[in-house]
């Protein structure tokens, strides 16, 4: 029954077009009642879609995604609290903020990377608030990790030139071998965003050009 059910889902998805890339095989549907938009998971960032990684794992298209309701920023400092690069003047899908201090601003990609590395210690990088902050980030589609912080578990990490440098995909497709890596393209080497102890070539794990991070099977 489960196999037949899965086949039915795959068959049905093959008939649906992604509203972002317009290609068929979109398996994710917006959960908003009356919305018929479907999309591929790798296309979600380009369409400003949000998937909530808790509860029933609801997904929303860009039009119906949850919005943060924050007060005007007290400091008016238009920099990301994490990477210190410029952020947008207003809150959006790509620029988020802390609901507790109302002051911290950060890029979605930056806070997602921090969430995966911080694990159970995840909190606002400015005011250090944890519970309301975590609830807000979950609602806004940030995926959290139940692991200990990476800076507590990665005690054997050596200098930067000793970072993991091979493809660990079950089948490496690179003609130059697992240790070959290029700065861009299909043979770019991605490290696990949680542990950085495993890697994969972009092509070997079928990562799209819009993919922001990759996580190994162990994590």
From TrEMBL:
One cellular-component annotation, GO: nucleus
GO molecular function, one term: zinc ion binding
SMART domains documented for this protein: PHD (SM00249)
Residue ranges of domain PHD-type in the record: 1-65
Gene: Phf7
Cross-referenced PROSITE patterns: EPHD (PS51805), ZF_RING_2 (PS50089)
InterPro entries, A to Z: EPHD, PHD-type_Zinc_Finger, PHD_PHF7/G2E3-like, Znf_FYVE_PHD, Znf_PHD, Znf_RING, Znf_RING/FYVE/PHD
UniProt protein name: PHF7 protein
